[in-house]
Amino acid sequence: MRTGTETAARVGPKAAGVPLARTRPRNRRELIITAARELFSRHGYAHVAMSDIAAAVGIGPSALYRHFRGKQELLHAVVAEALDSCLAGLHAPNAGELDVLTREFAATALARRELGVLWQREARHLPAEQHAQLARRLHAARHALDDRLTAGRPGLDPGHAELLSWSTLGVAASLAYQHVDLPAPEGPELVARLMHRVATADLPAIGEPRVPAARARLAHRSRREALLAAATELFAERGYASVSLEETGAAVGIAGQSIYHHFASKHEILATAVHRCVERLWLDLAEVLASAEDHAQALRRLVWRYTRNALASRHLVTLIATETEHLQEADRRRTHQFQRDYLAEWLELLGAVHPAMAAAEARVRVQAVVSVVNDVARTPRLGTRPGIARALHRLGCDLLELRPQ
User: 10 Å Cβ neighbour count for 216?
Assistant: First the structure.
């Protein structure tokens, strides 16, 4: 874990957008939230101490505690502020036509581009009641966007409206993972175009959410694989830090200590699960490249394979999105390098299909596809709908400007 001195020295007051001062500005609470938002999104809640945040604001820890009783309370304030700032415009009674709404939403999403990371990864550290309260705010914004889409498209069925509104929010969430500069006016205009493209997409039919039938689940014969499957599900649903080895062992009917016959540590279980997901994606990519006739076909097939994998393995998708901060340093570096290398393969294909497309735009489009697919896969109400894979494939191809085949 990084010490307060290390984090403050690396990030510093300037990186957090906060002046180093010994005065008592009236907006100190806002300055604290700004610094915490940047530190939490960049390094992860678990790796940031209150002393790091105090140093970034230029105050002592005691002054920080006059505003927030602890780090968890500060995290709640940070996530709530990001949600409200980004999504408030969706509730406006006179939001105007869809193109106006998407332009305004794109601007606010860029202003709070950390929201995707804060909500998907860091909000899991909040108590269940606080997390549920913030989730209700997000769902209210999604319902408001449903209403906007339906008003502009009277024939739009509720299932498509829900998918398109979640996917539009997914484009906003993807901005947190964009490591490119998106200066005005080109950046907001690009994001607005992508949001508008998703919101107005013409998709194949999807069915009602499936309720899994009650049946006995088939189990692995291998005890090691059974443990890995149980741990993957528990880590994804409750968070790595909240799951003990004893609970993992109990899920497959063995004592916690017996796990050491199969894995050296809980860290090794997490690393093995993440590695399993990584290898599956690389194998899929190799098969796509070996079988496709040209770059466009390869990219269309890659969107399809990624979509199918995400829908079938939503717990693994969740681990990659939310739990890699708990990997040991070497495994975390390897995982981050994989993510960069894997997306580079998408960018190479997209560059061959659209050679005139700017590199920054290509990166924004690819990350939007991955984020939208991941978000839907992790939302059972959407991910279990019959036909959802075809609908997501169409959305992905639209975002990448690929003509239907």
Answer: 5
Nearest-CA neighbor of 312 among 256, 259, 363, 384?
384
CA torsion through residues 67, 323, 381, 298, sign: positive
Helices (H), 239-328: 245-251, 266-291, 295-312, 314-322
**87-199 against 223-399: fold identical:** yes
> Are the beta carbons of 41 and 114 closer than 8 angstroms?
yes
Specify whether the CB–CB gap between 249 and 227 falls below 8 A: yes
Task: Locate all alpha helices (DSSP H) within 58-121, ordered by sequence.
Answer: 61-65, 71-87, 98-111, 115-117
Superfamily of domain 87-199: Tetracycline Repressor, domain 2 (1.10.357.10)
Q: What is the domain partition of the chain in residue ranges?
A: 4-69, 87-199, 223-399
pLDDT tens for the chain, residues 1 to 405: 333 434 434 444 444 445 444 556 789 999 999 999 999 999 999 899 999 999 999 999 999 999 999 999 999 999 999 999 999 999 877 656 889 999 999 999 999 999 999 999 999 999 999 999 999 999 999 999 999 999 888 889 999 999 999 999 999 999 999 888 888 899 999 999 999 999 999 999 999 988 766 656 677 889 999 999 999 999 999 999 999 999 999 999 988 788 999 999 999 999 999 999 999 999 999 999 999 999 999 999 999 999 999 999 999 999 999 999 899 999 999 999 999 999 999 999 999 999 999 999 999 999 999 999 999 999 999 999 999 999 999 999 999 999 877
Superfamily (CATH) of domain 223-399: Tetracycline Repressor, domain 2 (1.10.357.10)
Number of Cβ within 10 Å of residue 222's Cβ equals 11
Q: What are phi and psi of 58, to 5 degrees?
A: 85, 35
CA atoms within 13 A on the CB side of 176: 26
Q: Are 302 and 311 in contact (CB under 8 A)?
A: no
At residue 310's C-alpha, the angle toward residues 308 and 312, to 5°, is 70
- Beta carbons within 8 Å of 349's beta carbon, 6+ residues apart: 295, 298, 299, 302
Our CA dihedral for 271, 277, 283, 287, rounded to 10 degrees, sits at -170
Smallest Cα–Cα separation from 375: which of 308, 306, 299, 318? 318
Query: What CA–CA distance (Å, rounded) separates 108 from 56?
Result: 24
